[in-house]
């Protein structure tokens, strides 16, 4: 039994005339008549009563009409679901993200994606960059959002956002009175920072930046989470060099100041090679790029260097 047979039958039942029904489904009358006859043979009972003036349904035909309409409606819904899936409008997407993005970028991306793709279920997982790369390779997540590009040949990445480092200072610090700092201004200050084993690339490149200004930061306290580090800044323990979007995290006792020649950190999306053509992944990447492009820093000084994995 083919869907066209059901369409022909429904048209005949509603028009009650072979000629009008044939015109409605764009076939000749003989083809419609053959289609109905084949349908009756397959069902095994008469479905229509043919008279010279009109066509009437048999009791079996009336019951069959209910099912035929329901089947056609279900088929239309199924086709539409397939088309929406091909456009990335339905499905499931698992996204890994580094914790810092929860304070800038990620909420806007997820909010906009859910507005545009309400039938896509989004699963968010906070993971380090290394954990994201492993999860991508293992198929546990579909897209990763992290800092710095990846070198794994099995993964592809796209830069979404470029952000400079800024100085986070205690609000009462004398340097807080300046509108813009030089990195050398921080040379005599105690620093709070990540342990190197947690953020090795970030740590090493900040150290190289400072070394270029003639000093090595004196790290007096370490913590693994940015909010903790900023709380230490508020307590006057030391200064910190976060990415600019962390300045959205407003803590009493902390001020942020731009720093000349600050390195630029790239926020990138990463996915398995070849899966960027997936409609859902492609839709998410498009939304992420659109949202973050609107947040791009446009008045930052020219960067001294851009962070990269080594």
UniProtKB/TrEMBL annotation:
Keywords: DNA-binding, Transcription, Transcription regulation. One of its GO terms (cellular component) is protein-DNA complex. One of its GO terms (molecular function) is DNA-binding transcription factor activity. Belongs to the LysR transcriptional regulatory family. InterPro entries: LysR_HTH_N, LysR_subst-bd, WH-like_DNA-bd_sf, WH_DNA-bd_sf. This is LysR family transcriptional regulator. Gene3D superfamilies: Periplasmic binding protein-like II, Winged helix-like DNA-binding domain superfamily/Winged helix DNA-binding domain. Signal peptide: none annotated. It comes from Deinococcus arcticus. It comes from the Bacteria. Residues 1-58 form the HTH lysR-type domain.
């Amino acid at each position: 039994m083919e869907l066209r047979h059901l369409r022909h039958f429904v048209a005949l039942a509603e028009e009650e005339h072979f000629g009008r029904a044939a015109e409605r489904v764009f076939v000749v009358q003989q083809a419609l008549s053959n289609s109905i006859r084949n349908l009756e043979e397959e069902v095994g009972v008469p479905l229509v009563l043919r008279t010279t003036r009109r066509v009437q349904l048999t009791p079996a035909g009336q019951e069959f009409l209910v099912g035929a309409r329901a089947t056609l409606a279900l088929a239309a819904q199924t086709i539409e679901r397939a088309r929406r899936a091909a456009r990335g409008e339905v499905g499931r997407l698992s996204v890994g993200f580094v914790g810092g993005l929860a304070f800038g970028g990620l909420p806007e991306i997820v909010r906009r994606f859910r507005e545009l793709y309400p039938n896509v279920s989004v699963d968010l997982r906070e993971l380090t960059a290394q954990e994201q790369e492993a999860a991508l390779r293992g198929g546990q997540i579909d897209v990763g959002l992290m800092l710095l590009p990846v070198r794994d040949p099995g993964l592809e990445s796209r830069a979404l956002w470029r952000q400079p480092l800024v100085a986070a200072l205690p609000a009462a610090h004398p340097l807080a009175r300046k509108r813009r700092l030089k990195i050398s201004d921080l040379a005599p200050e105690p620093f709070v920072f990540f342990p190197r084993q947690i953020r090795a690339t970030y740590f090493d490149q900040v150290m190289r930046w400072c070394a270029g200004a003639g000093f090595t930061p004196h790290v007096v306290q370490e913590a693994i989470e940015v909010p903790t580090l900023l709380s230490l800044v508020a307590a006057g323990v030391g200064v910190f060099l976060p990415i600019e979007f962390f300045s959205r995290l407003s803590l009493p006792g902390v001020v942020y100041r731009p720093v000349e020649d600050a390195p630029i950190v790239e926020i990138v999306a990463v996915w398995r090679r070849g899966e960027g053509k997936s409609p859902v992944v492609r839709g998410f990447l498009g939304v992420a790029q659109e949202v973050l492009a609107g947040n791009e820093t446009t008045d930052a000084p020219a960067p001294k260097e851009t962070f990269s994995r080594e």
